[in-house]
Amino acid sequence: MPAIKEILFDCDNTLVLSEELAFEACAELANEILEKNGKEKRYTGPELLVDFVGQNFRGMMTSLEKKFDFQIPEKDFDEYVNRELGKVVEKLEKKAQPCEGSMEVLEQLHKSKKYGMAVVSSFALSRVEASIRKVGQDKYFPHDHVFSAATSLEKPTSKPDPAIYLHACKVIGVKPGECVAVEDSRSGATAAKNAKIPLIGYVGPYESKEQQDKMAKMLREECGAIAVMYHWREFMDCLKKVEQS
């Protein structure tokens, strides 16, 4: 394997505990969409998180269209995306917290100067920047090393599409095999796998040991994670495992 030059971090529930806050904010909009299209199903934030973890709101609405067999007019689609973003950013700016142990690892990596570091997210750039700014992680990532599948690409998309990873590699000037991705969800891990980027899985934010073990198994077996960490304190050992693979 080539030497690792760049570490590509997912943001939501990988660096910042933001998914639960975000899904609380967008459940209201998802239910409005379902009601407007004559569907009886209503979601709570946690239910939405289970069904659509790792997807941005645009991807989630596309999944809702497929799951419940309806279509949102394009002008309404864009309006919902903008409304959801405003709600989520407001909530994150008030309540976002870092994933336990992530600050110490970022500081260690930053001081070592051995690797470049970037954030690669499905979500809108303003949301990602609000998250890392609120928890004080923005100092570790130059503005041009924060990438969003919803904002940075000419054609917006969402993980598991690997486009945002391939775009990040191109902008940074590294090959996919010279990077390692850190992901907590099937969609994000699949995007890294499809971009041929070595993967470290992270299952810390899942509530129970049973959920963590289930996700760890999936990340290894389905998404090819070389290592899986349950807490950020394990990161350096996981990185070493990737470099030795």
From TrEMBL:
GO terms for molecular function: phosphoglycolate phosphatase activity. InterPro entries: HAD-like_hydrolase_sf (IPR050155), HAD-like_sf (IPR036412), HAD-SF_hydro_IA (IPR006439), HAD_sf (IPR023214), PGP-like_dom2 (IPR023198). GO terms for cellular component: cytosol. GO terms for biological process: DNA repair. SUPFAM superfamilies: HAD-like. PANTHER family: PHOSPHOGLYCOLATE PHOSPHATASE. This is Uncharacterized protein. It comes from Cryomyces minteri.
